[in-house]
From TrEMBL:
<dbReference type="InterPro" id="IPR001173">
    <property type="entry name" value="Glyco_trans_2-like"/>
</dbReference>
<dbReference type="InterPro" id="IPR029044">
    <property type="entry name" value="Nucleotide-diphossugar_trans"/>
</dbReference>
<protein>
    <recommendedName>
        <fullName>Glycosyltransferase 2-like domain-containing protein</fullName>
    </recommendedName>
</protein>
<dbReference type="InterPro" id="IPR050256">
    <property type="entry name" value="Glycosyltransferase_2"/>
</dbReference>
<feature type="domain" description="Glycosyltransferase 2-like">
    <location>
        <begin position="31"/>
        <end position="191"/>
    </location>
</feature>
<dbReference type="Pfam" id="PF00535">
    <property type="entry name" value="Glycos_transf_2"/>
</dbReference>
Length: 275
């Protein structure tokens, strides 16, 4: 795991670290799980942005069967920018890639980071703050709470809001952005959740399992620079239909996540590396 560089300008990109200096920023390790599929144009820039985050990081990259040269690029970048590199021989889906990454994380807290530059890694300390302060077990970064964002794809936004509404009805939580990439979760909690989806259904499945576990979920505004389909956006209407099915399946059929009780000891005081 890479140690936080002492010369990084945390006053510019890590304001929570200065605002709440008493929190255990130097003790926590954040595992950043990055599923990648045919992102040769963006993945190197994204990885360099991740490495600018002023935290101790465990960067886990899972290539999900890329065919555009991304795999070779990741191998070349591994020593410099990646702590753990996993390869799927064929495309299995975002959910499968994330589950592979979750099995290998070594940090106390896990966050999902897409490789498409739509989400800004320099906002990760903001999402981590409620977990470190003991207020939350999981934090969602919402694109709909007022952060700066690119104006794009009206019907995509409507679809996201409808899926979030249905998820909220069935989980009895009050999220504004269930489909957000930025989900940050304590590792010990994440390991207690039964996950099975292989594709984009991972978003509603994770949300349902967190609600079933009784996790304390926070939402915070984030910036968002969405891509158009001509720029490489991959999710489409079929994925929306699949997500709808997973909302129903995750909430109405077993298995359900067991109720979760946080251990008395803070996770950053223990070694959570997989056996």
């Amino acid at each position: 795991m890479a140690q936080r560089s002492p010369d990084k300008k945390i006053s510019q990109i890590g304001s929570p670290i200065l605002r709440n200096a008493s929190l255990p920023w130097d003790k926590v390790v954040l595992s950043v799980v990055i599923p990648v599929y045919n992102e040769i144009a963006t993945v190197e820039k994204l990885l360099r942005q991740v490495r600018e985050v002023p935290l101790d990081l465990d960067v886990v990259v899972v290539d999900d069967g890329s065919t555009d040269g991304t795999r070779d690029l990741l191998v070349n970048l591994a020593d410099e920018l990646i702590d753990q590199l996993c390869m799927h021989e064929k495309n299995l889906g975002k959910g499968a890639a994330l589950r592979t990454g979750f099995e290998r994380v070594k940090g106390h807290v896990v966050v999902i980071q897409d490789a498409d530059l739509e989400y800004d890694p320099l906002e990760l300390p903001v999402l981590l703050e409620p977990i470190l302060s003991g207020k939350a077990d999981a934090v969602y970064g919402s694109r709909f709470l007022g952060g700066p964002h690119r104006v794009l794809l009206f019907w995509h936004s409507v679809g996201n809001r409808l899926l979030t509404l249905l998820s909220n009805i069935l989980t009895d939580v009050n999220l504004t952005d269930m489909e957000t990439c930025y989900k940050m979760i304590r590792t010990d909690l994440l390991r207690s959740l039964p996950l099975s989806t292989k594709r984009f259904g991972i978003e509603p499945e994770l949300t349902a399992r967190l609600a079933q576990a009784g996790a304390r979920i926070y939402e915070l505004p984030i910036s968002y620079h969405g891509r158009s389909y001509s720029e490489g956006k991959k999710i489409g209407w079929r994925d929306g239909v699949s997500a709808l099915g997973w909302i129903l399946k995750s909430n109405c059929w077993p298995p359900r996540a067991p109720r979760w009780t946080p251990p008395l000891e803070d996770p950053w005081d223990t070694d959570l590396s997989p056996d």
